[in-house]
Amino acid sequence: MSAFDLFQIQDTILSGQALGAGIQVNGCHPVRLVMPAAWDAASITLQESPDNATWQNLYDNNGGEITVQAAASRTIVIPPSLLPGLIYLRLRSGTSGAPVNQTANRIVTWYVKKYGGSS
Predict the structure, then answer these.
(1) Whole-model pTM?
(2) How far is CA 77 from CA 31, 53, 74, in A?
(3) How far apart (Å, rounded) are the C-alpha atoms in residues 116 and 13?
């Protein structure tokens, strides 16, 4: 993968909230997630949307909520098969059943690569 195939997209979870604003990934594949230096302890779960208005929780083929074990100042590699074919993607601090509000604005950086980019 060349540096020209990789793009950064930032999503912000506002203070007192558990959900990010969402990012558009249409035409790109999320490959990495970089956590901010400050993060209120919580895993990350995800939502997807076809239109940036109607959001649904993301589950794997076994019916489990897709969960990323997040922590402050952590870089997380996203397996290629985990998030294919999405248009909009949104972070949640915590799970759908137990969201965790962040105590300050948190900027989380996604790295995405163009579909068909060299590996």
Answers:
(1) 0.87
(2) 6, 27, 10
(3) 30
Task: Confirm if 77 and 69 have CB atoms less than 8 A apart.
Answer: no
Neighbouring residues of 100: CB distance < 8 A, sequence distance ≥ 6: 18, 40, 41, 42, 93, 94
Residue 94 class from Cβ within 10 Å (0-12 exposed, 13-18 middle, 19+ buried)?
buried
Token digits of residue 38: 């400050």
Cα–Cα distance, 101 to 47 (Å, whole number): 16
Beta strands in the chain (DSSP E): 6-13, 23-24, 28-34, 44-49, 56-57, 67-68, 75-77, 88-93, 106-114
Express each pLDDT in 28-68 by its tens digit. 889 999 999 999 999 999 999 999 999 999 998 899 999 99
What letter does residue 60 receive in the DSSP assignment? -
